[in-house]
Specification:
Low-confidence stretches: 138-143
Shape: globular
Helix content: 55-70%
Structural class: mainly alpha
Length: 451
Amino acid sequence: MQQAGVSNKGLATRVRAEALKIGLDISPDHVSVRRWLDGMRPQQGTIRCIAAALGAKLNRRVTCAEIGFDSVVEAAESGLIEDGAQYAPCSEQAIDRLASLASADISESPAVAESAWVSETAPSIIAGYLFAEPQRTEYASSLADTSVDIAGRIRSTIRCLMNLDFQFGGGHTRRMLLVYWKTEIVPVLRRRYPETIAREVMSAAADAAEVLGWSAYDAGRHGAAQRYFVQGLRLAREANDRLMGGQILANLSHQANYLGNFSEAIQFARAAQAATVGEASATARAMFLAMEARALASIGDSQACAAALHRAEQAFDQHNPAEDPDWISYFDAWELAGEAAHCFRDLGQPHETLRFVEQAIDPVHTPARTRALIEMVRAAGALRSGDLEQAISIATGAVGLAGSLQSSRYLQYVADLHGLLTGKNVSHPSVRAFTELVGVSYPTLVLPKSA
């Protein structure tokens, strides 16, 4: 405080401002600061805000260690990161882990922000989900007011936030989801209900955890995303919601594939299929098979990939929207074609890539993020087919289309395409122009120095 030149009152004001930025409900005053100085330990979120407030005044990062609050915070968050990647033995532990993870995430905990995907836990996650029985806790009907459709309210809110995620990216919705989880869903999960209602609430919470995981994944917070998915999977098992469990397993497959963990991606996709035999709708089966095809394409197994895609198309031909859960409404014929386009891009088959890209975008209904990603796939296909100028034209249009899209995945697509363009054409005028455009549009995106 002396270095920053702030008084007790001044620090309290700055801490309140930092808390407001992250949706933390605290209102410290000069008396609070005096108590901190006298040895009273603030909550972990408050500690983060104190460090951020002093850092803003000093124009540098201030760590929790510098202000004397390192050991307990680091130990607690280290345990959270380690446990979060493990399949929880009971739903109560999953709820506790999700609550703590969301609180640390919303407080911009470096431990959460910098956490990575853990590969070693994949077998135990799959085995835990497939073979562990849900708890059979019986609750009396008088234990909670069940006159309000709590699960329906959660699902409706999550669908709205998911639609925003599709339009503007996970970076846009992540904080809203975190605040909603912390303030609305966690308190609901702490209450007790009759068993049938408890299952519905748990299922809706699993749905919310899945969307929260997806937004973290799209925002590039891969360790947090994996942990939201894994603990959400435990809630789905408790709810006996096999379809939501399959959806989360498919998301884990998608993320593992994106991160280059192809064997795990195949395992998760096949687990999604095994977990939903006899229960998955045709649309869900097609989506699970598409995830398997994506992973098979990544390892270069073109024959197995084509077979999985064929089965996905056969399943989708039988789809009936009336049989589908709400959360899979996004997976339509255009989405399936987009998955196929990704497969053939990864297999290095440009003509097939471009053929499926043409079927992957609906001019009205395809959301902005999906369109931007597919256009980058189209550009890659054009480049691999030998048309450099067409590839740059498509990519340039995609950058304009994306606008303020907050998606780490999209930025990675841009960087990957830029790497392909500059590989043999670094001095080409059109390539240089595209490099300048990317630099202006995405100033924080790190591009190869050769560009």
